[in-house]
Design a protein that fits this description.
Chain lengths: 281, 314
C-alpha cells in the first residue's frame, strides 16, 4: 500500500529524529548527510521498493546499496519503521556488540543488502546486483545513493561506465547533492560540476530534482522505469542537516553528534514538526 | 610416473573454470582487459553470456563481483596479481572480505617468473596482502593438475578465495590418477627427516628436483607442498618441525608476509625450530627471461639444493 505524501512526510521526519537519537547515543556519527538523504530513503522503502521485512533475504526483492554508507543512521531509522528490526536498536548504534554498526554491515543488520562505507564502492556492488538480475532474467531493481563528495572517487566513474556499457536499465543511482563535504563545500574541495553532463557523457539518463520533494522523487523514479537500455541517475539537490535548524547547510555537522543541549533542541524541533505533519495526514 | 604436462597454471585455471561451468550455472567470470593473458578467455569463448570484461578498472571489477555474490552468483574476478590484489586491495577488504562474500579472486602473472615485463608487473606481495584479510582462503597451486583441482575446490567452497596463477609454462609432477586436493591440507611429496623443505607454487617442482638429486649424497630431505597458504596446515608443519628439527621454506614471493611467515607463525608458537627462508628478500624484481630471473633469485633446483646441503651439514 503506497503512502500519501503527507504520510511520507511524517515518516521522513521520524527518520530524521531516529538519526539524531542514534548519533546522540553513539556520541558520534554523521547527522548532516543522514538528514539530507532521509526523504529519499523514506520514499524508496515505503513507496518504491519490493521488500519484505519478514524475509530480508528474499531472492527476488529490490536491492538498496547505501554507497554513502556513513549516512546510515537515517537509513536504520527507515528500516526500523519498515519493520526489519526494533526502533530501540537505534539507541545502541555504534555500541560494542550492536546490530547497528557505524557503517552498514549486511551480516549484522537485517534489511541491509550490502556492506558499505568506503566511498565509491557501493555503486560498483549495485552494478553487480543489477547485472545478476539480468543474468538470472529477474525483474528486481537496484537502487543506490551516492554523496556528491563521493563522486570525487574514481571508482564511481569506473562503475558508471560499466553500468552504461552493460545496459543496466534496472539500476537507479541517486546523488544526494547537499553540496558539503568534510573539508568544505564540494565545489571548493573537489569540483565535481557539471555533474549532470558528466553522468550523461557516461551514458546515463539524468534528471535533476529537489531531493526533499516526494512529488519530484516519485516522478523521477517513474520516469526511470520507462528508460530502456541505459542506467538512470537522479541528481537530488538537498540541504545538509535538513530539518534541524542549527544543522542546516553547516559543514561542521558532517560528522559529529549533538551534545545534551543540542540534542534537546533538535528533538524538540523534530517532534514539533512530526506533530504538525501528523495533523495534516 | 604419469605423463608430464607442460602448461602455465593460468591455462589450467581457464580450463577448470569451463569444466565447472558445465554443471554450475552460477559461475560468472570477470576480467579487466587481460582475458587473453589470464586465460579467462577460454571461459569467455565457451560461455560468452556469463563473461563480462570490465575494462581496465580493477576496483570496479571487484565491487561488481561483490554485488554479484551478494545476489547469489559465484563470480570469479581475474587480472594480473599486481592489479587484482594490489590495485583493488581496499575493495577486496571492504566489499568482499568484510561481508565474507563468495568471490574468487584470481591473480595471474604472479611472481618474478612474469619475466620481461619487469618489476611493475612482477607481484611479490599478493600472498601477503591476501593473507592478512580475515576469512580469505589463499591458494597457490604448483602444477597443472593441482591447479585444475584447486580451482574446482575454490568454486565449491562458499567464501572468498584468492588463487595465484603463473604466466610461465611449467612441467607437471603430480600424478592425475592419484592426486587429491584437500583445501587446507599440505601434501608430503618426499619422506625424509634430515630437514623438511616446505614449498609453495611454481618452485615446488624445483625443490622436488633438488630433494631427489640430494638422495645420492645421502641427504634425506622431507618435501612438503603447501598449496593452501591460508588456512595453513598446522599439523603437517608441527610434525615436520618435531621430526626434522630444521625447516626450509621456498617461495616465489617476498619472504615478508608469504609462506615463510605463515610457517614461522606456526613454529614460533608451537615448536620453535630454525627456519631458513628461500624467497625474494624484500626487494623488487627486474626485466629478463623468466628462468634466468628464477636462477638469479635463487629459486631453481641448484640453489635450493645448495641451501639444503648447507642446512643439513650445519
Amino acid at each position: 500500500m503506497a503512502k500519501s505524501f503527507a504520510e511520507l512526510k511524517v515518516l521522513a521526519a521520524k527518520a530524521r529524529l531516529g538519526a539524531i537519537i542514534g548519533t546522540y547515543h553513539a556520541k558520534s556519527g554523521h547527522p548532516g548527510g543522514s538528514l539530507s538523504a532521509a526523504d529519499i530513503f523514506t520514499y524508496l522503502y515505503f513507496n518504491e521498493m519490493k521488500v519484505d521485512p519478514e524475509k530480508p533475504d528474499w531472492a527476488d526483492r529490490d536491492r538498496f546499496v547505501l554507497s554513502k554508507g556513513h549516512c546510515c543512521p537515517s537509513l536504520y531509522a527507515v528500516l526500523a519503521m519498515k519493520g526489519f528490526f526494533d526502533w530501540k536498536e537505534l539507541e545502541s548504534l555504534r555500541h560494542v556488540g550492536a546490530m547497528l554498526q557505524g557503517h552498514p554491515d549486511m551480516k549484522s543488520t537485517p534489511g541491509v543488502d550490502m556492506s558499505s562505507g568506503s566511498l565509491g564502492q557501493g555503486i560498483s556492488a549495485a552494478c553487480g546486483m543489477a547485472l545478476a538480475a539480468k543474468l538470472d532474467n529477474k525483474d528486481y531493481r537496484v537502487y543506490t545513493v551516492l554523496g556528491d563528495g563521493e563522486c570525487e572517487e574514481g571508482e564511481v566513474w569506473e562503475a558508471a561506465m560499466f553500468a552504461a556499457h552493460n545496459n543496466l536499465d534496472n539500476l537507479v543511482v541517486f546523488v544526494d547533492q547537499n553540496g558539503l563535504q568534510i573539508d568544505g563545500t564540494v565545489e571548493e574541495v573537489g569540483g565535481i560540476e557539471p555533474l549532470d553532463k558528466k553522468f550523461e557523457a557516461f551514458g546515463f539518463e539524468v534528471v535533476k530534482i529537489d531531493g526533499h520533494s516526494f512529488d519530484n522523487i516519485e516522478a523521477a523514479l517513474n520516469k526511470a522505469k520507462t528508460v530502456k537500455g541505459k542506467p538512470f541517475a537522479i541528481l537530488a539537490k538537498t540541504v545538509k542537516g535538513k530539518g534541524v535548524s542549527f544543522m542546516e547547510n553547516q559543514v561542521g555537522w558532517h560528522g559529529k553528534a549533538c551534545n545534551d543541549e543540542e540534542f534537546k533542541v533538535a528533538v524538540k524541533e523534530l517532534e514539533d514538526e512530526i506533530a504538525r505533519l501528523e495533523a495534516e495526514v | 610416473m604419469a605423463q608430464v604436462v607442460c602448461k602455465p597454471t593460468r591455462e589450467s585455471f581457464g580450463i577448470a573454470l569451463c569444466e565447472m561451468a558445465k554443471t554450475n550455472k552460477d559461475i560468472v567470470v570477470l576480467d579487466a582487459d587481460l582475458a587473453a593473458a589470464t586465460k579467462t578467455s577460454i571461459f569467455q569463448k565457451e560461455y560468452p553470456e556469463r563473461f563480462r570484461n570490465c575494462g581496465i578498472a580493477e576496483g570496479n571489477m571487484i565491487g561488481v563481483a561483490a554485488g554479484l555474490a551478494a545476489a547469489g552468483k559465484i563470480p570469479v574476478a581475474a587480472s594480473f596479481a599486481m592489479f587484482s590484489t594490489g590495485r583493488a586491495y581496499e575493495q577486496i577488504r571492504n566489499s568482499i572480505a568484510y561481508p565474507c562474500l563468495n568471490v574468487k579472486i584470481a591473480g595471474s602473472h604472479a611472481g618474478i617468473s612474469t619475466g620481461e615485463d619487469g618489476a611493475t608487473h612482477q607481484c611479490l606481495e599478493d600472498i601477503a596482502l591476501m593473507r592478512t584479510l580475515p576469512g580469505m582462503v589463499v591458494l597457490n597451486p604448483a602444477d597443472h593438475f593441482e591447479m585444475m583441482e584447486a580451482t574446482k575446490a575454490a568454486i565449491d567452497y562458499d567464501g572468498p578465495v584468492y588463487i595465484r596463477l603463473g604466466r610461465l609454462a611449467i612441467d607437471s609432477f603430480n600424478d592425475p590418477d592419484s592426486y587429491k586436493f584437500e583445501l587446507g591440507k599440505g601434501i608430503t611429496l618426499h619422506e625424509g627427516d634430515d630437514v623438511a623443505v616446505i614449498a609453495s607454487g611454481l618452485v615446488v617442482n624445483e625443490a622436488r628436483k633438488a630433494v631427489l638429486a640430494l638422495e645420492s649424497e645421502g641427504i634425506n630431505a622431507r618435501l612438503i607442498n603447501i598449496h593452501t597458504i591460508k588456512p595453513i596446515d598446522r599439523d603437517i608443519i608441527i610434525k615436520a618441525a618435531k621430526e626434522c628439527k630444521q625447516l626450509i621454506t621456498v617461495e616465489e614471493h617476498n619472504v615478508i608476509g608469504g609462506l615463510a611467515d605463515a610457517v614461522c607463525e606456526v613454529t614460533s608458537s608451537e615448536c620453535p625450530v630454525k627456519v631458513t627462508r628461500i624467497g625474494v628478500y624484500d626487494r623488487f624484481g627486474y626485466s629478463g627471461p623468466a628462468w634466468e630471473l628464477l636462477e638469479k633469485f635463487g629459486l631453481t633446483e641448484t640453489h635450493i639444493a645448495k641451501v639444503i646441503r648447507e642446512v643439513v651439514k650445519g
